[in-house]
Amino acid sequence: MLDEHEISRTIRRMAVQLVERHHQLEQILLVGIRTRGLPLAERLRHEIEQLEGVEVALGALDITLYRDDLSTIAPQPVIKGTHFPVALDDRVVVLTDDVLYTGRTVRAALDELTDYGRPKAVQLAVLIDRGHRELPIQADIIGKTLPTARREMVEVAFKATDGEDCVRLFERQEEDDSE
Amino acid sequence: MNGEERVWTRKDLLGIAELSKQEILTLLDTAESFLDVATRPIKKVPTLRGRTVINLFFENSTRTRSSFELAEKRLSADSLNFSGSGSALSKGESLIDTALNLEAMSPDLVIIRHQHPGVPHLLAKRLESGVINAGDGAHEHPTQALLDAFTIRRHKGSIEGLKVSIIGDIEHSRVVRSNIHLLTKLGAEVTVAGPRTMMPAGIEAMGVKAVYDLPSALHDADVVMMLRVQMERHTKGLFPSNKEYFDLFGLTPQRLQMAKEDAIVMHPGPMNRGVEISSSVADGTRSVILDQVANGVAVRMAVLYLLISARSGGMV
Known about the structure:
Order of helices and strands of chain B: HEHEHEHEHEHEEHEHHEHH
Number of strands of chain B: 9
Helix content of chain B: 25-40%
Largest sheet of chain A: 5 strands, parallel
Oligomer: heterodimer
Order of helices and strands of chain A: HEHEEHEEEHE
Distance between the termini of chain B: 19 Å
């Protein structure tokens, strides 16, 4: 659906939107939701630095322990950890993730953030919004809106994690799935 | 996401003997993530919220039970404590009846410590809930072996090829048995040492070397694990006195030098200072005894998490 060039352009546009919304970039804390929210956050940080010469703070969030359904955990639940370089209080946290779907991941991320502190505000930036929300959650910055069917899967690849930049859409093969 | 096979699918943790190397490594890897929870300001994650865990300890244990309790609370589970004395069991209720009564409360897990080997296995067969063996007689104590291995791994990188010496009352120790299973599965070279009166016959069949003097045990060791010598045993004539035990098998700073320069000293606790270990070693720089306690909570969190996840994976 998106090739390398389109992804770079989309991320650049998202970075411009971020800069426009925030007068004080030093107040922002970009938090990538593992796994693929993190390379997105890193790329956004890079773009912002190119645009404005400011290096925005960056953290990582692992929501495995906050999920609302243990049965959907990957077979080998190796938790990579949550780390913030600064305290959350008084910061505007911008959560980033590759795909926004049911919204449950973001719900878990919000719960976890609250256990670490009280951010001044939390916003959400996603590369792809594929619809089918199960909770009242929306993104503030969207790279691309992609209407999908439930039986379809959206797969995002980044150079940093997968060796290439790509967004693919394909049909599920199996009958039953617990996504 | 769910394309691979789950590594951990058991509803119970009854011993180390039946576990595969892959299952053990999964437990240890998962425990790494839980160490982090203890360093947060809010030392809690909601993962097991609403799950019920029953701690059924027929033998006294402050250490293991509080470690499990803390693990349960940090995962937001609800825990219930039953101890042997003062419970219905002492009034003559059979073990199975006690267990079935507990099951009527729908626990997700029952953690049991009992003086008779095989009790956890009996419960596991009869109960719908998962069962964790917290020590059954002199048979096994799987979570202790797991936290020991976890501690060794964190200090030494990998267990493969390490020389581990376990010293003390080998015959009566469930910690030793579980450790031997685990360490040999992970490729360590295990030596057990102690007075002949405390060494079970045929222990070599478990894949270990048995020696009867401290220098042989300590020579070239990467890990030195001291076992608690139960004070009451010397009244059974197993050794003449505590002092004599210390003279022959007690770990002192001078004797520790016989091991490798960077050898670590471990002890499952509680320690008898001046009997199996001198204070200066127990409190010294090579001792990782307090790490074991902290690691114990993380390892038990991983066990609770994996067992309950395995149950949920089958659709609750």
